[in-house]
Amino acid sequence: MVQTPRFLTIPDVAEILNTSAAQVRALLFSGDLRGIKIGGRGQWRVEVSELEAYIQRQYARTDQLTRQGSPEHDPPVGG
Q: % helix / strand / coil in the chain, to the nearest 5?
């Protein structure tokens, strides 16, 4: 039985969110995404539950913007 890891690396998070490692670092530095630094080199790790919480917050934020009908937050036409 394969055990799901508790913590993800920055590349893991980037793959899940389909974004760049630099964007994940920006989310960590801004505090939008919670993570921890471990080891002497301060490598970042993100707990799976924190990533899920971040995703849920983004869905809630998107829902709120959609209800407001803000045109600058509309998805692009044709894409």
A: 55, 15, 35
Q: Which two tokens stand for residue 21?
A: 């490692």
Instruction: Give the pLDDT confidence of 6-32 residue by residue, as tens digits.
Output: 999 999 999 999 999 999 999 999 999
H helices then E strands: how many in the chain? 3, 3
Cα gap 69→28, rounded to integer Å: 29
Domain boundaries, the chain: 7-69
7-69 topology per CATH: Multidrug-efflux Transporter Regulator; Chain: A; Domain 2 (1.10.1660)
What pTM, to 2 d.p., does this model score? 0.78
Cα distances (angstroms) measured from residue 28 to each of 3, 6, 12, 16, 40: 25, 17, 14, 15, 18
